[in-house]
Structures are given as structure tokens and as C-alpha cells.
Write a structure and sequence with these properties.
Elements lengths: L1 E2 L7 H12 L3 E6 L7 H10 L4 E4 L5 H6 L2 H12 L14
Parallel strand pairs: 1-2, 2-3
Amino acid sequence: MRILPTGGTGHIGSHTAIALIEAGHQVTLLDSFCNSRPAVLDRHQEITGETMDFFEVDVTDEDALERTELEADLARLQKEVGDEPNAGWTDGPIS
């Protein structure tokens, strides 16, 4: 499953992203680096052995979100999931 954690280079988001990668999920991170540093992305790769997709963007800035390639990723995801409202989502916690 592709998961999009916001604040992905902060303390909680960083640990969450690593756990998701280790659980076999595809992760695309969003962060503005207002409380973190870009070096965290290198650390993610050192720990998991994988490079995560990343967009430096403030999620409160709608214009910035529109300028990212995120729209293309979301469009691709919509095609994968289709029109079924909850397709691809889990009803419980990720284990």
C-alpha cells in the first residue's frame, strides 16, 4: 500500500515512515523542514536501505501542493484504487 505521511522528517513522522517501509509499504513523505532537517532523509535511507519519495512542501499551502508532482501520484493512485470508496484501505491498524 502507498502511504503519504505528512511531517515525514519530524520525530514521529520519521519513525512512522521507517516502520511503514519495514512493513513493506511504499512511502511518499511530505515535509516543510520547519522542525527537522533534510539530513533525516539520508538517515531514512541508511536505516531502511530504500529511498523514499519526498516532497518539500507545507501542507497548509494549497498553491505549493498543486505545484508538486503529488497530483500525478494521486491521479495514479486513483486509477489503481478505482471508484470503489474504500478500496485499498484497511479497517484496522497496520501490523
